[in-house]
Amino acid sequence: MENSLGQKLRALREQQGLTLKQLFERSGVSLSHISALERGERVRPSYDRLYKLAKALGVSPSYFTGESTLDERERTESVRDILLSLPTDLQEFIAKEDSVPYILLAKRLAEAGEDGVRVVESIADFLKSRSVKNSPG
């Protein structure tokens, strides 16, 4: 089965540098279920499980059941979901025009993989503490 759900799941997981355990931790779908899907032993997960896996990987469920690539609408929805999941103060920071250089830096660091994520979190903490120090009071 070319481009099966399991193949797409494994390819996307590996592309993001995630282990089965990390995907389990992000999605809440059991390790054995994810593994069985990737091996093609299970081919029809419940919509709930498919949704959890898709959300954990930053795609829509239709990525696994429809086309093999993300269309612009799916990418936009995924980015919107990610932004809405952030704390309000971080959403407001991202919306500011002068945050663009920081966002571009964060994007590059995130693309670096898991270690990049830790660096991004550190930068976010730094910026948050900086804004508290600079606030009038």
CATH class term of the largest domain: Mainly Alpha
Overall strand count:
0
| Average pLDDT | 76
The ordered H/E elements are: HHHHHHHHH
Structural class: mainly alpha
Describe this structure in words.
The structure is a single chain. With 137 residues, the protein is mainly alpha-helical. It has 2 domains: 5-65, lambda repressor-like DNA-binding domains (434 Repressor (Amino-terminal Domain), Orthogonal Bundle), CATH 1.10.260; 86-134, no CATH class. 72% of the residues lie in helices and 0% in strands. It has 9 helices and no strands. Helix 1 packs across helix 3 and helix 8 (100-111) runs antiparallel to helix 9. It starts with a helix and ends with a helix.
Entry keywords:
single chain; 137 residues; mainly alpha; 434 Repressor (Amino-terminal Domain); 2 domains; elongated
In short:
The protein has 137 residues and is mainly alpha-helical. It has helices at 5-15, 20-27, 31-39, 47-57, 62-65, 72-85, 88-95, 100-111, 114-134. It has nine helices and no strands.
